[in-house]
Structures are given as structure tokens and as C-alpha cells.
Amino acid sequence: MKKEKLLKFFNEKNELVNQNKAFTSFNLKCVNRFDFVVSNQKGLVGNSVEIKSIKDLIDAVKEYYSQTKKDYRECIVYSPNVNKESELFVTPKLLVL
Prior knowledge:
Blueprint: H1 3-24, E1 34-39, E2 49-51, H2 54-64, E3 76-78, E4 88-94
Parallel strand pairs: 1-3
Antiparallel strand pairs: 1-4, 2-4
Helix pairs in contact: 1-2
């Protein structure tokens, strides 16, 4: 999946979290903190997407966090024993503070 589509997927997940927060607190729009977990296994339907290149993932995560002070490099997490030569999937994992 290309950077633009990955970014759209991340923003959709962010919006879902913001909508859920609106039920329990102030209706604030924010960039939610995710770890973007890379693995060779597809997650639940709608929860992960296949990626074609690590570069596209890095570019999308970098842009997702572009308006924050968060270091995007800390947010890309590789599952143990991930094989970068095989199919790759990314799953956003919400970080709860």
C-alpha cells in the first residue's frame, strides 16, 4: 500500500478514536498516539493493511506525526522474527496513557 493510502488508513483509525473519546470527554480533535506494528500476519479485518515497502510506511508515519513533537521513529515496531522479504502488514496499536 502506498504512503497516501497508509496515511488515510492511519487518519481513519485516529478519527475513530476521537469519535469514541467524544462520548466520554470533551470533543477535542487530536493526533492519537499509535505504535505501528509491522508483522507477517494479517490482523483482524479492517485493523491492519498490507504494505509493499518499509519506505512508504516510514513516510506515512512521519507525515501522520508531522504536526506533533513525537519522534516517528519510536512508533514503528517490528514483531519478533518479522521477515522483511515476505508479506508485511501494519496494525496501528493505540497507546493509552
